[in-house]
Design brief:
Chain B: Pfam families: Cytochrome_CBB3, FixP_N. Chain B: GO terms for molecular function: electron transfer activity; heme binding; metal ion binding. Chain B: Keywords: Heme, Iron, Membrane, Metal-binding, Signal, Transmembrane, Transmembrane helix. The complex is a heterodimer of chains A (703) and B (349). In chain A, 63% of the residues lie in helices and 3% in strands. The termini of chain A are far apart. By secondary structure, chain B is mainly α. The chains are: A mainly alpha (703), B mainly alpha (349).
């Protein structure tokens, strides 16, 4: 058969590589800033966009969707073309994909700094971005599938299975989790409430880790590790088993983020057992990668790229063993809400995603610039600084987590809590400082890489269209190599898409639908009433400032938590919470029952300067809440949207809402006035106080 | 003759284990879910032993010339095992319950299972030796002839990562070529495979156990009960039983120093570092909102005044600490700190 001549598109790969590096730097800087702010709270500068609550979503979104996201696209665009022996389906789609994604990231970062957030972790971007992400994801899918359909290679390599699985699962997760009703151009409310919202959100959140940080990177691993090591993949059958097992089991594990919460216990148990079953499929990926390096270990000593790959795979293995352990209820009782989770995810993010990306960048950029890496020595230095950075990052946090959790749970012989919350925070602040040092090391390694790669690029010549040739696909595809039953689906991309959708869909359907339909999962509490208009505004402020990044609203049924925060949280208390605000980390204390615990004046002073009420507090100051006014024009649509979502406000209440709001605001200002704290009733602080004073109170009305 | 011996010893073992499984079960314990599972496992394993045993025996039949050695080994092994099974049968006193089973029954059942697993492993081992010898002789006579070939250790067997040399690598090459990437088709390491099966087994058992495990609320209730008991024990011993009726003003400097520390971290935010009053009232003047006697102050701290923003501190401080605090507040009376808050409440000297 005559060979066809064509060329690979390297330009899009280059753009994605640059975007990956650039956003990576920004995302990591935001992370470092946030880490330092925990040690030096004044770093928030009394300026809303630089408070921890807004920096943290910027950091997480930037490193996940911008750094890793662009890393995925870089690797996929490079490897897919070569594995399919075809140029990307459409240069225009590639362009739309690239610029669309960057526009989403830039706009997303900007709006997150402005405080526009849905309040759902890792899905903070507001509804216009959710739609844009869906569209760009479809463009990516069309471009990828188009390329696959026009391939000159009969069978799809394992890397492509992972790309397809990723695409299908992310599309499903993103769309289901993003059901929301817009209030204004940049504000919406989740269509789900309370327990259901929590389940959907962590089904999404956990699988964002699975299908954005794991499966696409496993795909990249399957291409770049054998390429860089020049060794055959260790086991084909292993890749089949672990691919299908991984995507099937992963989707079920979301509820392990909600152990000991008000989530129905059967769902929690499913989360636990599927997490345990995930160990082997995850390790299958790690081991297949590491064993592929057999016969190349002598080169690992000199080759920085292989070193990065080895540590990346090892970190992947550690994180995927630790994760299931954290999903056991007795371990989770210690680890949850502490820095253990943060350490755990950073083993994955810094080690697995970061190091694999760096290895790929060092391998790929010199190739598309047809030159050699500027300095192998610098790359090795980067490797060692980065590794040290990871160690300095995670060990202090593990230590901090253990210390704090043990302190939380200690009682005196008289049966009193031994430590105030603040004491436990102040004990671990030195660990936070060490963590920031680790982050600085890691970041300096990245900067060294940027210099090294820039020098490499400057001395090379860019090959925008790399010539290639291959025979076209024959009409009848003959199985290559040894026969294997799995090669049936490797020849059929459409079936592969459909099968992966079914496989990832099962777990989601079986967990979500019962929670939505079975009433007994969320027992009704009659005294729980909808929020007042002022409290709704206060809640929006709470979400806007990212309070949920440091404060939970979910008291677990433990003796220490009940003693510290009050009666444990019940599922029925959250039925009007669109979105839920349970949080996942307690840098500050739980707020589920903060209502009525302190006088209004305490909250006033505390938001103005937290250290005045809680000496030693590391919470930032919120001076703008005392100047900015609540937007009254939003009250009627807010009531309407909430009613549409099922909150039982009487018909026509939207007309009366503003009057009610003013009345409640007047009451709060009057009480503040008594304590010589004059404030206008239309200020945001009044709404926030109203919300905080309401939290957790409804249930007490029954007693 | 040897075959008979093996058969007899296997039967002996079967009957013994069967006896062991029935004997520790009083009828009430038979209905226990844990017991049922353990018994099911025991029976399942017994069946496996039976099948394996007959396989081993027939394998031995084929290699009569080799039986003598391995046959005796097996007999000794089985006899040993059987002896152990008998040793398990000593009755022990019922003390604590494990999952609703008495300790004796639980450990007995578990050790029967362990024993059975040991038997299965030894049978498998024997079978492997027999079959392995045969296979090596038939298929790879050349390789066996290679002198100095290292013996495969149990660790390697567990790991079973093949294709270390170019020859065997060519054996398992799938013949794929994706942009220069080749794929071998090595087996998955047995430890990984069995680990996966174990995790699935764990999942099944966990979900099944979930039916009978205490709920979160029950866990909390039992933790609270245990804590209350501990606390009661402690209070009986300690001279700590102070309430608002029995409280006396303390004057010991150590008590007051301890109280001052508590005051500055907990009370100062609202009452000022010198008790001059900020959000909360002045504590140093002659005016009191809720009574100025030591008993009243103690009671105000202990129960709080919810509608005025004073929280109840009884869960944060011990009775002794409450007494220290109340005494400290009495001790700063009349200290006239700077910037005092205006008078609130009733004059009380």
């Amino acid at each position: 058969m005559p060979l066809e001549k064509f060329s690979y598109d390297n330009r899009t790969v280059k753009w994605f590589a640059y975007a990956c590096i650039g956003w990576g730097l920004i995302g990591m800087l935001a992370g470092l800033w946030a880490a330092l702010a925990l040690v030096l709270p004044d770093l928030s500068l009394g300026f809303a966009p630089t408070t921890f609550g807004r920096l943290r979503p910027v950091h997480t979104n930037a490193v996940i969707f911008a750094f890793v996201g662009n890393g995925i696209f870089m690797g996929v665009y490079y490897s897919l073309q070569r594995l399919c022996k075809a140029r990307m389906f459409s240069d225009i789609l590639s362009k739309i994909h690239f610029w669309g994604w960057q526009a989403i990231i830039a706009g997303g970062a900007l709006t997150l700094f402005m405080g526009c957030t849905t309040g759902k972790e890792y899905a903070e971007l507001e509804w216009p971005f959710d739609i844009a992400i869906t569209l760009i994801w479809l463009v990516f899918g069309a471009n990828m599938l188009g390329t696959i359909l026009r391939r000159r290679e009969a069978h799809l390599y394992v890397a492509i299975w992972f790309y397809i699985g990723t695409w299908v699962a992310i599309a499903m997760l993103h769309i289901v989790n993003s059901f929301e009703l817009p209030l204004s151009f940049l504000k919406s409310y989740s269509a789900y409430a309370g327990v259901q919202d929590a389940l959907v959100q962590w089904w999404y959140g956990h699988n964002a880790v699975a299908f954005f940080l794991t499966t696409p990177y496993l795909g990249l691993m399957y291409y770049f590790v054998p390429k860089a090591a020049n060794r055959p993949v260790y086991s084909y059958r292993w890749s089949i088993i672990h691919f299908w097992a991984l995507i099937f089991i992963y989707i079920w594990a979301g509820p392990h983020h909600l152990l000991y919460t008000a989530l129905p216990e059967w769902a929690q148990s499913l989360g636990t057992v599927f997490s345990i079953m995930l160990i082997a499929p995850s390790w299958g990926g790690m081991l297949n990668g590491l064993l592929t390096l057999r016969g190349a270990w002598d080169r690992v000593r000199e080759d920085a790229i292989l070193k990065f790959f080895v540590v990346a795979l090892t970190c992947y293995g550690m994180a995927t063993f630790e994760g299931p352990m954290l999903s056991l209820k007795n371990v989770n009782a210690i680890s949850h809400y502490t820095d253990w989770t943060i350490a755990h995810v950073h083993v994955g993010a810094l080690g697995w995603n970061g190091f694999l990306t760096f290895g790929i960048l060092y391998w790929l950029l010199p190739r598309i610039f047809s030159t050699n890496l500027y300095s192998k020595k610098w790359a090795n230095t980067h490797f060692w600084i980065g590794t040290l950075g990871i160690i300095f990052y995670v060990i202090p946090l593990y230590w901090a987590a253990f210390t704090q959790s043990m302190m939380w749970k200690q009682f005196t012989p008289e049966g009193q809590l031994k430590f105030q919350f603040l004491e436990t925070v102040n004990t671990i602040v030195p660990m936070y400082a060490l963590r920031a040092f680790g982050g600085t090391l890691y970041l300096s390694g990245v900067i060294l890489m940027i210099v090294n790669l820039t020098k490499t690029i400057l001395r090379g010549t860019f090959v925008a269209n790399e010539p290639a040739e291959a025979a076209p696909l024959p009409k009848v595809i003959v199985t290559h190599g040894k026969a294997h039953w799995h090669s049936w689906i490797e020849r059929r991309p459409i079936q592969l898409v459909v099968f992966s959708l079914i496989v990832v869909g099962i777990g989601g359907i079986l967990e979500l639908i019962p929670t939505f339909l079975i009433k007994s999962n969320i027992p009704t509490i009659t005294s729980v009433k909808p929020y007042t208009p002022l409290e709704l505004h206060g809640r929006d402020i709470y979400i806007r400032e990212g309070c949920y990044t440091c404060h939970s609203q979910m008291i677990r049924p433990f003796r220490d938590e009940v003693a510290r925060y009050g009666e444990y949280s019940k599922a029925g208390e959250f039925i009007y919470d669109h979105p839920f605000q349970w949080g996942s980390k307690r840098t500050g204390p739980d707020l589920a029952r903060i209502g009525g615990k302190y006088p209004n004046s305490w909250h006033y002073n505390h938001m103005m300067d937290p250290t005045s009420m809680s000496p030693g507090s590391i919470m930032p100051q919120y001076p703008w809440l005392f100047e900015d006014k609540v937007d009254k024009t939003l009250t009627p649509p807010m009531i309407n949207v909430m009613r549409k979502l099922g909150v039982p406000y009487a018909l026509g209440y939207e007309k009366q809402a503003n009057a009610d709001m003013e009345k409640q605001a007047q009451e709060i200002t009057a009480s503040l006035q008594k304590d010589k704290l004059p404030i206008q009733p239309d200020r945001e602080i009044v709404a926030l106080i109203a919300y905080l004073q309401r939290l957790g109170k409804d249930i007490k009305a029954t007693h | 003759m040897n075959k008979k011996l093996v058969n007899i010893s296997a039967l002996l073992l079967l009957s013994l284990t069967a006896a062991a499984q029935d004997r520790p079960e009083p009828p009430s314990e038979l209905s226990n879910p844990v017991a049922i599972v353990l018994l099911t496992v025991i029976i399942g394993l017994l069946i496996a032993i039976g099948i394996l045993g007959s396989v081993v025996i027939s394998a031995m039949d084929i290699y009569k010339d080799r039986i003598k050695k391995s046959g005796t080994v097996l007999t000794i092994l089985l006899l040993l095992v059987a002896g152990q099974a008998m040793a398990q049968d000593t009755p022990a006193a019922k003390t604590t319950l494990i999952n609703g089973l008495s300790q004796t029954s639980f450990y007995l059942l578990v050790s029967v299972i362990v024993l059975e697993i040991a038997v299965i492993i030894s049978l498998l081992f024997t079978l492997r030796i027999l079959v392995g010898i045969e296979r090596k002789r038939r298929i790879k006579p050349v390789k066996e002839a290679v002198p100095g070939k290292p013996k495969i250790s149990w660790l390697d067997k567990l790991n079973d990562t093949k294709s270390l040399d170019a020859d065997s690598e060519a054996d398992v090459d799938m013949g794929h070529d994706y942009d220069g990437i080749h794929e071998l088709n090595n087996p998955t390491p047995p430890w990984w495979r069995y680990g996966f099966y174990c995790s699935i087994l764990f999942a099944v058992v966990y979900l099944w156990r979930f039916q009978s495990a205490p709920t979160q609320a029950e866990e909390l209730a039992s933790a609270e009960a245990a804590a209350a008991e501990e606390k009661a024990e402690y209070l009986k011993l300690a001279a700590n039983n102070i309430d608002e009726k029995s409280v006396k003003q303390l004057t010991d400097p150590a008590d007051l120093a301890a109280a001052q520390k508590l005051f500055s971290t907990n009370c100062a935010p609202c009452h000022g570092p010198q008790g001059q009053g900020v959000v909360g009232p002045n504590l140093t003047d002659d005016y009191w909102l809720h009574g100025g006697k030591i008993n009243d102050v103690f009671s105000t701290i202990k129960y709080g005044v919810a509608d005025k923003g004073m929280k109840s501190w009884k869960d944060d401080f011990s009775p002794r600490q409450l007494a220290q605090l109340a005494s400290y507040i009495k001790s700063i009376h009349g200290s006239n700190p700077p910037n005092p808050k205006e008078k609130q409440g009733i004059l009380e000297q």
